User: Which sequence fits this backbone?
């Protein structure tokens, strides 16, 4: 059966991958953006004179603070900005995203963005087939369930 008959989505982008696998990190970067929107104005980061250089320096300051904490025995998420009380890594990621957006220019049309997002197929020869999962194993019963973003349709057999 052609699984594209009712929904032609083959080859389309999968934005859920970002939200599903980076939800916590994105939420913390979002908090950094919300903090900045209150401190300044929503979207005002786009209007900072010499923004790319200034956001680069800000990202480096937060990176330096984070790495100093790591050198002192703390984890990458144990270093907090004194003013905002948000993690340095959240500020660092926001600043890098701001640089990326500013360098891409506003607006970028859909065709140009798709051209920038096009990638070569990655090598997959290193992959090995995983053994089947035993859902009854003692270790599996306490594992966090993994959502299947593309479940196979269930085939009904004769009654």
Assistant:
């Amino acid at each position: 059966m052609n699984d594209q008959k009712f929904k032609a989505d083959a080859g389309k982008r999968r934005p859920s991958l970002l939200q599903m696998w980076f939800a916590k990190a994105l939420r913390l970067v979002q908090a950094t953006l919300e903090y900045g929107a209150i401190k300044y104005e929503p979207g005002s980061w786009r209007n900072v004179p010499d923004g790319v250089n200034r956001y680069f320096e800000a990202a480096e300051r937060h990176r330096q603070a984070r790495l100093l904490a790591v050198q002192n025995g703390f984890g990458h998420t144990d270093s907090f900005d004194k003013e905002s009380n948000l993690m340095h890594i959240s500020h660092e990621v926001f600043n890098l995203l701001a640089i990326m957006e500013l360098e891409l220019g506003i607006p970028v049309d859909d065709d140009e963005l798709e051209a920038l997002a096009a990638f070569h197929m990655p090598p997959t020869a290193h992959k090995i087939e995983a053994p089947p999962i035993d859902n009854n194993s003692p270790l599996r019963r306490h594992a966090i369930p993994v959502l299947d973003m593309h479940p196979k349709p269930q085939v009904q057999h004769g009654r």
